[in-house]
Amino acid sequence: MRRCLVLSSWFLPKKIISWEDAITSLCLDKSEMLIAYDEKVHSPSTSMDLPAVIREKRNTSRNKKAVKFSRHNVYARDHYTCQFCRNRFQFNELTYDHVVPRSRGGKTEFTNIVTACRKCNTKKGNSTCDEAGMWPMTRPVQPKTLPITSIPIDKNHAPLEWQTWLK
Length: 167
Known about the structure:
Blueprint: E1 3-7, E2 13-18, H1 19-27, E3 31-42, E4 47-56, H2 71-77, E5 94-98, E6 113-117, H3 118-124, H4 129-132
Parallel strand pairs: 1-4
Antiparallel strand pairs: 1-2, 3-4, 5-6
């Protein structure tokens, strides 16, 4: 199954979507195709190149009231860096950790969640930071905005068509 790399209007990698969703975005004139695979998709009435890389036409709104809590936004806030061992990881190598464990009344919200690698999260387990002797390098806060970041993509496993836009 082919996937499509979506770039922000600033040409930063934003997300990876299915080719079907990419075609929908193109047909709704929300994006433009930058690179296509050497394949075509056909319907009874038309044929088009299979999109490999598309770019959003519209800037993301800057007037949002609050940053929505999500795994991706927690990782972006923490710069894809484990807050315990301070190493940077790919999205799929990360988890998030409750500073105050849920079993002890900790909530799943920005002010109690930090990015953690799997090894550190397992080591800390259901302990508090004091009990585990592990403290995050930054205090978790509710962000007002998020840094302009691009999603980390492993260049070794990315299609050749994406390479121009990957760091």
